């Protein structure tokens, strides 16, 4: 090859390279995504819809796209739970640079909460009520958390609405229409098992849900953490906390039967301080009812203050006040252990009846980090609960049974009921948590001490004083609404005769260690020592006479816990556990001696999994709970006699399954099923093998939620459907050897179908929901004297503005 030809080839190559280089597109699109308070927004999706390219913002909030062709583009910033933003731009020239920045509606704290919520499943969320910072995947116990996003999008009005998202947790009764009695595994979540921000809450008043951050459930025995709690589990409702970024929201909710509820949530730093933040949640509810003449009114406020004392110490101060006033409503009645076929709307109590309740609590939590691995937390709380009710007594109460004879079918001789209760509760605890190594074995340790004291004052009224025959009779009605009897509407004078004081105090010391023996074998073990003192009642009479009793009984108990976890892979956990719990008994026997606590043993076996690249989580749990010394009435005494004996044995056994997904093509699914069978195994009173009241054998739930893709023209739209099933239960009065005429009353199963739709436009959000679409009818029944129908089809809508 001669030099001339070589030069020509070299010149041709250089020319071709220059032509190709000159013709290459090198347009760069970049920008920053920040929050409303000016902080970088990391891990947010930025998408070019035309090229289907996606970038994730870096820690400094930056993103970029390169080598773009000329044309028109849509640039979308989105994340599940965020207010999506779209910007349009056009590239004209082939080379150059465009800068497009976004400012999110959310502040930094809110963005962090949203990202955590969207990227985690049930098996990632640690329930604060568990005290020990152990991932649910590592915990040998079934747990569940309902997040704020679920509460808001389902427009939840009560805890009973919320627990429809949990398998095996159900409403077992709504006595008087003023409370919800929740339960799990055959055991009630009474006031010993219900907590608010980790402190016991009197659930005789329905908790307000507008100020909730989430709802936590630890199923099974938890005596090691809390002492005297029921064997079904504990429920903790967590309120919203202060945020240093200024913001908030206002909302207005309305619905069927004259339901109106304005609410406000305001938070921020005081005077732009970096050390003091506040938050105030408040709502007011006024409502009618599908029950004729029933009305309710509620006020709630939850102020809180967060003080950062230093780099490692913070103090959280929280107040919580609920006032709830409503009519008494014991439902439709039952005739010889069958639900009376009266209209769902027919109200049988008196128009002037009332249940007025209020609960005021103040809690301080001091948290100090000793170092990166150790922390100490101290909690002090005080709470006062007042309740007064007055109206017609429950049907079939006071030995005034609804007449079942043909001549007087449905006749009910109404008596009266009047109660007043005052409860003062104080609680204090100190917990130390930390992590350390012994060789290659990792430990997560919890050690603590807690003490509480509760004093209940209960007033007794003379319901017969205004009658010459000294009978508790107000008037006579027919429960089917016929008018053959003259009804009274006056408010009689019913004086109190005496009140009793019942003090109970408890002290507990506990230690618990989560040990990672290897990467596949882990163990949780611990023990609690509890001491409780129950005092006999003091009686103070209106006449000035006092009967003071200095007698008390002191009980102590060890509550052990041990659980083993085997993880063949990081996405599969198989666990088994044993827990021992106890229930404090305040009743006395025929000798006037306070009964000993009931000791309850639970055995549990389960598996937890994360499937399909962590998009789906599946839990399955089986359990057996044995109470070998259950409290019951004496066989030969009247059922109204308050004396009790330890003479029964009960067993609860069942299985639970739940399936939860992350967002899959815009769909989120939460589904569950539970089976429970709880019966008397042995008893000197009840027939062995008979079912225990109020517990359904089967419950199931499925909720599907869909969010329109940000690139779609219907961006901002979301919708959901839900199905909730409660199987047949029994109420009535368990057959006893002394009262063979007693009978169990079947309560029909029911399905609840719901549908919701929502739309978000900038800072404004609209929601609409319909409950019980098929207008199913069933009941929540206490014995055979508070037969409350479930709500019919109802509509709810909410509009909210975020600032």
Strand content: over 45%
Q: What would the CATH topology of the largest domain be?
A: Maltoporin, Chain A
Give the helix/strand class: mainly beta
Helix content: under 10%
DSSP helical segment count: 5
Termini separation (Å)? 78 Å
The major beta sheet can be summarized as: 22 strands, antiparallel, barrel
The appropriate CATH architecture of the largest domain is Beta Barrel
Number of domains: 3
Please write out the topology.
Elements: H1 3-23, E1 26-34, E2 45-48, E3 53-56, E4 62-68, E5 71-78, E6 85-91, E7 95-99, E8 102-103, H2 108-119, E9 143-147, H3 148-153, H4 159-162, E10 169-173, E11 181-184, E12 187-188, E13 194-196, E14 199-200, E15 212-219, H5 223-226, E16 233-239, E17 247-255, E18 259-269, E19 276-287, E20 296-308, E21 313-326, E22 354-369, E23 374-392, E24 411-414, E25 416-438, E26 441-461, E27 475-478, E28 496-516, E29 521-535, E30 538-541, E31 546-547, E32 552-569, E33 572-583, E34 598-611, E35 616-633, E36 644-661, E37 667-683, E38 698-707, E39 717-726, E40 729-732, E41 744-747, E42 750-761, E43 764-771, E44 779-782, E45 786-789, E46 794-802
Parallel strand pairs: 1-7, 1-8, 13-16
Antiparallel strand pairs: 1-4, 2-3, 2-5, 5-6, 9-15, 10-11, 11-12, 13-14, 15-16, 17-18, 17-46, 18-19, 19-20, 20-21, 21-22, 22-23, 23-25, 24-27, 25-26, 26-28, 28-29, 28-30, 29-32, 30-31, 32-33, 33-34, 34-35, 35-36, 36-37, 37-38, 38-39, 39-42, 40-41, 42-43, 43-46, 44-45
């Amino acid at each position: 090859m001669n030099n001339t030809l070589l030069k020509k080839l070299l010149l041709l190559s250089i020319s071709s390279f220059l032509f190709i280089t000159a013709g290459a597109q090198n347009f760069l699109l970049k920008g920053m995504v920040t929050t409303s308070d000016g902080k970088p927004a990391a891990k947010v999706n930025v998408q070019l819809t035309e090229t289907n390219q996606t970038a994730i913002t870096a820690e400094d909030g930056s993103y970029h796209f390169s080598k773009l062709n000329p044309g028109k583009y849509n640039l979308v910033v989105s994340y599940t739970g965020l207010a999506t933003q779209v910007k349009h731009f056009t590239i004209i020239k082939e080379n150059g640079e465009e800068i497009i920045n976004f400012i999110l509606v959310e502040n930094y704290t809110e963005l962090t909460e949203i990202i955590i919520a969207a990227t985690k499943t049930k098996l990632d969320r640690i329930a604060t009520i568990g005290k020990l910072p152990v991932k649910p995947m590592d915990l040998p116990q079934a747990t569940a958390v309902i997040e704020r996003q679920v509460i808001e999008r389902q427009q939840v009005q009560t805890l009973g609405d919320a627990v429809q998202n949990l398998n095996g947790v159900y409403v077992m009764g709504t006595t008087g229409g003023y409370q919800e009695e929740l339960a799990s595994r055959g055991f009630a979540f009474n006031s010993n098992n219900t907590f608010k921000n980790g402190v016991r809450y009197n659930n005789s008043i329905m908790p307000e849900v507008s100020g909730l951050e989430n709802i936590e459930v630890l199923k099974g025995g938890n005596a090691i953490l809390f002492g005297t709690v029921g064997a079904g589990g504990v429920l903790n409702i967590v309120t919203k906390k202060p945020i240093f970024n200024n913001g908030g929201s206002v909302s207005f909710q309305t619905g069927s039967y004259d339901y109106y509820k304005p609410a406000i949530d305001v938070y921020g730093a005081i005077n732009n301080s970096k050390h003091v933040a506040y938050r105030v949640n408040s709502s007011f509810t006024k409502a009618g009812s599908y029950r004729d003449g029933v009305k309710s009114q509620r006020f709630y406020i939850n102020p809180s203050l967060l003080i950062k004392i230093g780099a490692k110490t913070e103090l959280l101060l929280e107040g919580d006040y609920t006032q709830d006033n409503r009519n008494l409503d014991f439902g439709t009645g039952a005739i010889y252990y069958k639900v009376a076929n009266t209209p769902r709307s027919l109200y049988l109590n008196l128009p002037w009846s009332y249940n007025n309740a209020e609960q005021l609590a103040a809690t301080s939590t001091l948290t100090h980090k000793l170092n990166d691995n150790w922390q100490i937390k101290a909690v002090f709380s005080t709470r006062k609960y007042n309740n007064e009710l007055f109206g017609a007594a429950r049907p079939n109460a006071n030995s005034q049974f609804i007449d079942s004879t043909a001549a007087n079918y449905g006749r009910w001789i109404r008596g009266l009921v009047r109660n007043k209760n005052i409860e003062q509760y104080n609680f204090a605890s100190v917990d130390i948590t930390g992590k350390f190594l012994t060789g290659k074995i990792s430990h997560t340790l919890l050690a603590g001490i807690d003490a509480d004291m509760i004093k209940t004052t209960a007033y007794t009224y003379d319901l017969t004083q205004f009658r010459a025959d000294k009978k508790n009779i107000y008037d006579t009605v027919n429960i089917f609404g016929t008018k053959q009897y003259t009804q009274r509407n006056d408010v009689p004078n019913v004086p109190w005769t005496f009140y009793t004081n019942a003090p109970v105090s408890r002290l507990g010391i506990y230690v618990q260690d989560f040990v990672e023996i290897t990467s596949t074998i882990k163990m949780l073990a611990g023990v609690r020592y509890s001491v409780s003192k129950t005092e006999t009642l003091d009686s103070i009479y209106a006449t000035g006479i006092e009967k003071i009793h200095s007698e008390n009984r002191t009980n102590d108990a060890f509550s052990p816990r041990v659980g083993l976890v085997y993880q063949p892979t990081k996405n599969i956990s198989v666990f088994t556990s044993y827990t021992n719990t106890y229930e404090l008994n305040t009743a006395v026997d025929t000798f006037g001696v306070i009964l000993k606590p009931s000791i309850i043993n639970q055995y549990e076996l389960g598996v937890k999994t994360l499937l399909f690249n962590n998009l789906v989580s599946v839990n399955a749990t089986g359990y057996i709970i044995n109470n070998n010394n259950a409290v019951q009435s004496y066989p030969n005494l009247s059922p109204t006699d308050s004396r009790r004996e330890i003479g029964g044995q009960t067993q609860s056994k069942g299985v639970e399954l739940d399936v939860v997904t992350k967002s899959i093509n815009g769909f989120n699914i939460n589904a569950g099923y539970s089976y429970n069978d709880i019966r008397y195994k042995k008893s000197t009173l009840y027939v062995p093998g008979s079912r225990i009241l109020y517990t359904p054998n089967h419950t199931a739930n499925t909720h599907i939620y869909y969010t329109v893709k940000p690139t779609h023209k219907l961006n901002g739209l979301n919708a959901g459907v839900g199905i909730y099933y409660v199987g047949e239960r029994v109420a009535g009065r368990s057959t006893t050897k002394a009262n063979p005429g007693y009978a169990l009353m079947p309560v029909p199963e029911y399905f609840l179908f719901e549908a919701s739709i929502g739309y978000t436009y900038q800072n404004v959000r609209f929601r609409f929901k319909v409950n019980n679409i098929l207008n199913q009818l069933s009941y929540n029944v206490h014995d055979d004297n508070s037969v409350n129908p479930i709500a019919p089809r109802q509509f709810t809508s909410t509009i909210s503005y975020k600032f």
